[in-house]
Amino acid sequence: MNGNTDTIVAPATPAGRGGIGIVRVSGPGTRLVATAVLGRLPQPRHATVSVFSDSGGNTLDVGLALYFPAPDSFTGEDVLELHGHGGPVVMDLLVARAMELGARLARPGEFSERAFHNGKLDLVQAEAIADLIAAGSAEAARAALRSLSGVFSGEVHALAAKVMELRAYVEAAIDFPDEDAQFLESPEVRERLADIGERFSSIAETVRQGRALRDGLHVVIAGLPNAGKSSLLNALAGFEAAIVTEIPGTTRDLVRERIHVDGLPIHVVDTAGLRDTEDVIEVEGLRRARMEMSRADLVLYVVDATRGFAAGESATLPAGAATLVVWNKVDLPEAQAAPAADDRPLVAVSALTGAGLPQLREQLKSAAGYQSESGAWSARRRHLDALARAQSLFEVAEARLAERASFELVAEELRQAHEALGEVTGETSSDAVLGAVFATFCIGK
What we know:
Blueprint: E1 8-11, E2 18-26, H1 30-38, E3 48-53, E4 59-68, E5 79-86, H2 88-100, E6 104-105, H3 110-117, H4 123-134, H5 138-148, H6 151-173, H7 180-184, H8 187-215, E7 217-223, H9 229-237, E8 255-261, E9 264-270, H10 280-294, E10 298-304, E11 323-328, E12 346-348, H11 357-368, H12 381-402, H13 407-425, H14 431-438
Parallel strand pairs: 1-6, 7-9, 7-10, 10-11, 11-12
Antiparallel strand pairs: 1-2, 2-5, 3-4, 4-5, 8-9
């Protein structure tokens, strides 16, 4: 147990009005709160119809009470849930009553943080709770559930165990320096190295898929006026997200939409047509467009196929960002053939008829490194960073072995690789990392 001496309380349901609202209490003072509010301690793990009372015995609400004694609860502490009517006034009254009895308002993610410290969840599983709540597609929800069930953590633990076994094997060889050649050439060492390398690659690929599902792709649509940028956004979104006219400069500000391609979330931004103008509003729109392009994962540069590239336009395509040329309006009789010599990836489409859009969607998935039905786990940037660092340290150790370097150096690289893997599940994470992770959670979770 983490040894928390204070009791926390918070609504576990979103703010606003609803049929049911839940207030959650956790900590050593939970039994006191339950007895004072309900008049008795409910039977553990049984939903009990109860009257929720204030300090004067007046009824605040009538609902269900659920009591989970430690350690068999979500947080590992005594937990009380009051399921009342979902109005903000009722929720505030119940929270205030618990605070009157000694509880304090929980910090964001503090319930999950206590579950982590009490060994109920590791850090990956705790993060998966937040990812499941925020899932924007069925695929993202399934990925979060896989992580929450411990699949991701299990793979990392298995890899960490393999790294530790190799480290122990290397350290055992330190006492026999005259037999290092025999050690290095043994089939067991080669098999261990190959197995660990394959596990790193497999986990890294699955985690990349999971991060794509969680964070999605930031795509910016750019190009000259009337190239069909807004029409392309509408075609991808499947509805009229942006105004489309034949008047240049119709789009002056950024238009943002969130779409899904086979479960992959894509944040699409339509921008003002790139041209010289003295219109103050349009100038500001162009400034915002260029700023958005500079931080995009992918720029869809739309070209009107009936006009082709304007003079010098190809050389002014956005620099510093991955760019896919979208050769639009190919359904029109006067459409020109796409330039074969251009070294940028290109896809020919018609935003009006939908021709080429399936190929464009495949290009979007490819840009994110995403594959449908990949069995991905919900993952975050920090997971990728920690795994990449662990893999790099392992590869250094592998190279040192091949160079017949000191076994002490090899063992140290493997130790650091093991610690980096521990950062994924939270076993070796600093308080600063834990604080940053749980601060992103909602208060009642």
